[in-house]
Specification:
The complex is a heterodimer of chains A (about 240) and B (about 55).
Chain A: E1 2-5, H1 10-20, E2 26-28, H2 32-40, E3 47-51, E4 57-61, H3 68-75, H4 98-105, H5 109-118, H6 123-148, H7 152-165, H8 172-184, H9 186-208, H10 214-223, H11 228-237
Parallel strand pairs in A: 1-2
Antiparallel strand pairs in A: 3-4
Helix pairs in contact in A: 4-5, 5-6, 6-7, 7-8, 9-10, 9-11, 10-11
Chain B: H1 2-14, E1 30-32, E2 49-53
The chains are: A mainly alpha (about 240), B alpha+beta (about 55).
Chain lengths: ~240, ~55
């Protein structure tokens, strides 16, 4: 997982993230970068820190010096991110059923809710249920925000996982309804088609360079005017 | 020799395990492009994490 931390305010960071369409989580107003730097005697930025699955720092340095070897070493023993990884919730709650906590950490929210129900009445179970309900609400907000900015790939996959996971839970009804709304929304479907066409054009950019991919990018602009993908393609072509 | 050994070990000692209070928590005023539980040392347990400390300037 890649995380970017900046100590600058969101008013500076967010426009940059939007302009360059950064595909990973970016923190604004974070002090953690400064603390990490102080721990290793590093003042300059940019600076990268690679943590292994146990949370230990296994490498740090300039991002340009990071190699596949470093990454492979850090990945040893790491959990594989399955389709439910985005649904995962980890936390410690006194008295919560341990198996429910484990299920939540694995993103198996339906199982977690079932185990909570079995332990109904205990304070820990109630607290965990509140946390997971809030987590599902957060996920829904995040998915809607991502759809709103034209980031469909990850967000729609997350919506599908959430709908599938909670199909037999009372929270699942509204999620399934949202999934159907998106499937029937012509504007969003057009955006998704445009995003797929842009992905193909970007693959061409990566393999053959922007000059050779120019026609593909122009085709995205022409076929899907007024979409997020067309805006990005136009930005890459220039003008 | 001792100094070299210390330098080599430094990266491993620099961050204690996630539950160690000396490890800096991943704080933020806000997150962009994030899907899932708000990142924290606890939520990232079991994953390899690349943290990029950067600025827009």
């Amino acid at each position: 997982m890649v995380l970017a931390l900046s100590n600058e305010p969101a008013s500076k960071v967010v426009p940059y993230v939007e302009q360059y369409d950064l595909p990973f989580p970016v923190a604004s107003g974070s002090k953690a970068g400064g603390k990490l730097g102080a721990m290793v005697g590093q003042k300059g930025i940019p600076h990268s820190y690679l943590l292994n699955p146990e949370g230990r720092l296994v490498w740090h340095g300039h991002p340009g010096a990071l190699t596949n070897k470093h990454i492979k070493a850090a990945l040893v023993g790491a959990d594989r991110a399955g389709p439910n990884a985005v649904l995962s919730w980890r936390g410690e709650i006194d008295g919560a059923p341990p198996k429910a906590l484990e299920a939540a950490a694995d993103g198996e929210l339906a199982d977690a809710f079932k185990l909570i129900e079995k332990a109904a009445g205990s304070a820990g179970a109630g607290a965990l249920e509140e946390c997971l309900t809030a987590h599902v609400a957060d996920l829904r907000k995040q998915i809607d925000a991502a759809v709103g900015r034209g980031d469909f790939g990850q967000s729609l996959a997350a919506l599908e996982s959430l709908a599938k996971e909670l199909k037999r839970h009372p929270l699942g009804g509204a999620i399934l309804e949202r999934q159907r709304e998106i499937e029937n929304d012509e504007t969003i479907q057009n955006e998704i088609e445009a995003a797929e066409a842009l992905d193909k054009a970007l693959e061409l950019v990566a393999n053959r360079g922007i000059k050779k991919a120019k026609k593909s990018l122009e085709s995205v602009v022409k076929r899907f005017p007024s979409t997020h993908a067309a805006k990005r393609a136009q930005g890459l072509i220039g003008g | 020799m001792n100094r070299l050994a210390l330098i080599a070990a430094l990266p491993l000692l620099a961050l204690a395990p996630a539950e160690d209070p000396m490890s800096p928590e991943i704080d933020a005023e806000s997150w962009s492009r994030h899907l899932g539980q708000t990142p924290s040392l606890q939520s990232l347990k079991g994953r390899a994490v690349l943290i990029e400390v950067w600025a827009t300037w």
